[in-house]
Design a protein that fits this description.
Helix 1 packs antiparallel against helix 2 and helix 2 packs antiparallel against helix 3. The protein has 110 residues and is mainly alpha-helical. It has one domain. The chain contains 3 helices and no strands.
Length: 110
């Protein structure tokens, strides 16, 4: 990155630092959305977005630090994050369908 052009490596480093700070702030906002909701679907989307932002942060750190193993960690994190969101969605759908079934029985089966 920036080989042969003086100052370009420092410019990239500064840009990456600014982007990392911005992503950290956005990550905090997503955490707030995940906590206050108001619906379960909002929380699931916020958790998914947080996982995506963490992957981007890891990828930027891999470029910034020039460490190739961080790209592997990013891929593993992507798979785990995807599975976590799928599990959360399945659990939510199970609870939702169970509540709906109870309400139908309560209302006379309509």
């Amino acid at each position: 990155m920036g080989n042969g052009i003086p100052g370009l490596a420092q410019a990239y480093h500064g840009l990456f630092a600014v982007v990392l700070v911005f992503l950290a702030l956005m990550l905090m906002l997503c955490l707030i959305r995940a906590i206050i909701g108001p619906r379960i679907a909002d929380r699931i989307v916020a958790v998914n977005m947080m996982g995506t932002m963490v992957m981007v942060i890891i990828a930027i750190l891999a470029l910034m630090l020039q460490e190739g193993y961080l790209a592997d960690i990013c891929l593993i994190y992507a798979m785990i994050s995807f599975l976590a969101v799928i599990v959360l969605t399945k659990v939510y759908m199970g609870v939702y369908l169970e509540r709906k079934e109870k309400e139908e029985k309560k209302n006379g089966g309509h």
